[in-house]
């Protein structure tokens, strides 16, 4: 039977991904129902559309998407990624704790107190200079900075709080100079690898850069398998750093970019569609 997949996106964000999705879906005889976050979000309309969907894929990295995802879940729909991943996997402190608990190597981190006096004491005790400061949530390196000393750290924390619309908790993290190794995972398959490397210390983003693939050794395969198991993420981008030839898991992202290699976008999208259809079939046959 023809499957219908919901597709959450935001306006023109990731326009090429959306076109690829619609194109490949058509080829595979899959119906796509779109949920545009930048349109009006009328409850009845959402419900009508949701009814048609066998499964829904959220391809928006916007914070705003979470409420729609939760609404669709309340309507009994399965959304990939589920809203839970926002709280437990994409939260950088939760990711650190999950790694520690499961012996997954990750940069040493501490959660800072909201009081600047206490945070100063904590940073002194952590004694790891330079230190990386980052908000527990954020994307594109927007809330990630490096501080050489305590004074700079406090300045950065204040700036984060001024810049953000809310005062979110901040973690301090060991600085690991390394390119960023992005692994795109679909189900239990490593679908793509890309080294992100810029001139500065922050290696982030998809746009206007050239990427290289990298080789996945057995160690990294094992680590990745464990991360997928414990976070229960289905379609995600995992970033790794390398310290003394050892892999460190940095963070996990839902709705990862598909555009690292333009000529492989369709291939990646096809893998995702196959995966989603398989999930639906598994549920039907259960
Ligand atoms: N502990 C760290 N050591 C060295 N570089 C880091 C560290 N944390 C982050 N970075 C750099 O900053 C980039 C953005 O950080 P990340 O934690 O991935 O935040 P975001 O969610 O904003 O992408 C990373 O891709 C990496 O290049
Ligand atoms: Mg990142």
Can you offer a commentary on this structure?
The protein folds into 3 domains: 101 residues, Response regulator (Rossmann fold), CATH 3.40.50; 83 residues, ATP-grasp fold, B domain (D-amino Acid Aminotransferase, Chain A, domain 1, 2-Layer Sandwich), CATH 3.30.470; 66 residues, Dna Ligase, domain 1 (2-Layer Sandwich). The protein is of the alpha/beta class. The radius of gyration is 20 Å and the shape is globular. It contains 9 helices and 12 strands. The strands form 3 sheets. The chain has a 4-stranded parallel β-sheet, with helices on both faces. A 4-stranded antiparallel β-sheet has the order 5-8-6-7, with helices on both faces. Strands 10-9-11-12 form a 4-stranded antiparallel β-sheet. The mean pLDDT is 94. It starts with a strand and ends with a helix. Helices cover 38% and strands 24% of the residues. The site of magnesium ion has 3 residues, from loops. Magnesium ion binds next to loops.
Walk me through the topology.
Layout (H helix, E strand, L loop, with lengths): L3 E6 L5 H13 L3 E6 L6 H10 L2 E4 L6 H10 L4 E2 L3 H5 L3 H10 L7 E3 L4 H11 L4 E5 L8 E4 L2 H14 L6 E5 L5 E7 L2 E8 L21 H14 L3 E9 L2 E9 L10 H21 L1
Parallel strand pairs: 1-2, 1-3, 3-4
Antiparallel strand pairs: 5-8, 6-7, 6-8, 9-10, 9-11, 11-12
Helix pairs in contact: 1-9
This protein binds adenosine-5'-diphosphate and magnesium ion (MG).
Magnesium ion binds next to loops.
């Amino acid at each position: 039977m023809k499957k219908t997949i919901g597709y959450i996106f935001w306006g023109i964000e990731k326009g090429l991904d959306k076109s690829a999705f619609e194109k490949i879906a058509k080829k595979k005889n899959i119906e796509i129902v779109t949920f545009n976050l930048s349109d009006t979000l009328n409850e009845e309309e959402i419900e009508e559309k949701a009814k048609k969907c066998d499964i829904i894929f959220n391809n928006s990295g916007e914070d705003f998407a979470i409420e729609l995802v939760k609404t669709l879940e309340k309507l009994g729909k399965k959304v990939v990624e589920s809203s839970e991943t926002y709280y437990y996997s994409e939260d950088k402190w939760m990711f650190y704790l999950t790694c520690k608990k499961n012996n997954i190597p990750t940069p040493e981190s501490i959660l800072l107190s909201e009081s600047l006096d206490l945070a100063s004491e904590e940073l002194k005790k952590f004694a790891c200079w330079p230190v990386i400061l980052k908000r527990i949530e954020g994307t594109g390196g927007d809330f990630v900075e490096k501080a050489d000393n305590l004074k700079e750290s406090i300045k950065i924390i204040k700036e984060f709080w001024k810049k953000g619309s809310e005062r979110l908790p901040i973690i301090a993290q060991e600085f690991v100079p390394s390119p960023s190794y992005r692994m795109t995972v679909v189900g239990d398959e490593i679908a793509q690898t890309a080294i992100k490397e810029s001139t500065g210390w922050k290696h982030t983003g998809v746009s206007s850069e050239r990427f290289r693939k990298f080789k996945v050794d057995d160690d990294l395969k094992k680590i990745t398998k464990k991360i997928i198991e414990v976070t229960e993420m289905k379609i995600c981008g995992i970033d790794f750093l390398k310290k003394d030839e050892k892999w460190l898991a940095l963070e996990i992202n839902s709705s990862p970019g598909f555009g690292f290699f333009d000529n492989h976008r369709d291939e990646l999208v096809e893998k995702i569609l196959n995966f989603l259809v398989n999930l639906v079939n598994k549920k039907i046959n259960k």
